[in-house]
Amino acid sequence: MSAQVRSCPKCFQLMWLNSEEYEVVDEETIRTTCPHCGSTVRFQLVTQGDNAAGPKMGH
Ligand SMILES: [Zn+2]
């Protein structure tokens, strides 16, 4: 799995999530510690389905 960039829900700063730096809670959820505010935060992963690559841009 490639690195992800997410915004911390607590302090709203961006953090890079490398695969070795977060804990997989289940197949859709990861957990990590924010390097900025130290909060334990969870993110939902979208790895399958139509929205896996994000919304498609219109023509
Ligand atoms: Zn934070």
Features of the shown structure:
binds zinc ion; two-stranded antiparallel sheet; 59 residues; mainly beta; 3-stranded antiparallel beta sheet
Question: Please, could you describe this protein's structure?
Answer:
Strand 3 and strand 4 form a beta hairpin. This protein has a three-stranded antiparallel sheet, with no helix packed on it. It has a domain of 41 residues. By secondary structure, it is mainly beta. The relative contact order is 0.22. Bound molecules: zinc ion. The site of zinc ion has 8 residues, from loops.
Furnish the topology, listing elements before pairings.
Layout: E1 4-7, E2 14-17, E3 23-26, E4 29-33, E5 40-44
Bound molecules: zinc ion.
Residues 8, 10-11, 13, 34, 36-37, 39 line the site of zinc ion (ZN).
What's the mean pLDDT score?
A: 83
**What's the order of the H and E elements?**
EEEEE
The count of β-strands is 5
The class by helix and strand makeup works out as: mainly beta
Distance between the termini: 29 Å
Distinct ligands, ions and cofactors found in the model: zinc ion
Tell me what portion of residues adopts beta-strand conformation: 35-45%
The biggest sheet, with number of strands, parallel, antiparallel or mixed sense and barrel status, is: 3 strands, antiparallel
How much helix, percentage-wise, in residues? Answer: under 10%
Shape: globular
Give the low-pLDDT segments: none
Question: What's the gyration radius in Å?
Answer: 13 Å
Q: Work out the helix count.
A: 0
Lateral arrangement of strands in the main beta sheet: 3-4-5
